[in-house]
Amino acid sequence: MNETRLYQDDASRFGGGGTRFRRVAGTDTDLAALVRLRDEAARWMLARGITGQWRPGELDSDHFRRVAEHGEVWLAEAGGRVVGAWELWWEDEDAWGPQAPVAGYVHRLMVDREAAAPGTGRLLLRAAERRVAEAGRDLVRLDCLAGNARLTAYYLDAGYRVVGHKAGKPQPGGAPKAFTLLEKALPGKALPGKALPGMRPAEKEPAEKGLSRG
């Protein structure tokens, strides 16, 4: 399979014809770009009063190298520059507990807010969803820091739903934190009809209802 061509076609379909996707090769250049994206995203959050989620310097090249070895890390490029990235895991027991192999888990969806075109974040998310579908899995799962209403609203607007909450999820380089768990059934797949094993079902959260993307 020509992964680069496949995801270039996907970018064109969703209005990002100038965006090219490719899997991280583990080179020093790729790893440095990922660290840069992560640190810039952390600074952007802190500048807007979004505290407690990411901090600059938390993740280094070794983190992204390990993820690339055991899962997948994807880069988005436009105009000769890396403008976004995401991690794709095939299991996430720290957040979701032991699960059947029915989902892909998206982590660290990152966008260069100075260089990326509007809508790049949604484009990356759609590409990640397509990759999960290609792997034969029915669901895309992700999490966000509990209390981050703006980010939760972003994922709700993208078709995800809150399915649970996880307290005390281990964090690389920091203390455990609480997270909201979200999932999306891929087209043609039915939503699961029962709570996930070992997880607290999602409570009704009026604060999240009716939120628009910030």
From TrEMBL:
| Basic and acidic residues bias locations | 201-214
Q: Where is this region: Disordered?
A: 190-214
Q: Specify one Pfam family.
A: Acetyltransf_1
Q: How is this protein named in the record?
A: GNAT family N-acetyltransferase
Provide the alphabetized UniProt keywords. Acyltransferase, Transferase
Give one GO term, molecular function aspect.
acyltransferase activity, transferring groups other than amino-acyl groups
Check the record and name the Gene3D superfamilies matching this protein.
Answer: 3.40.630.30
Its lineage reads: Bacteria, Bacillati, Actinomycetota, Actinomycetes, Kitasatosporales
Domain N-acetyltransferase, by residue range, is: 19-187
What start-end ranges are recorded for coiled-coil regions in this protein? none
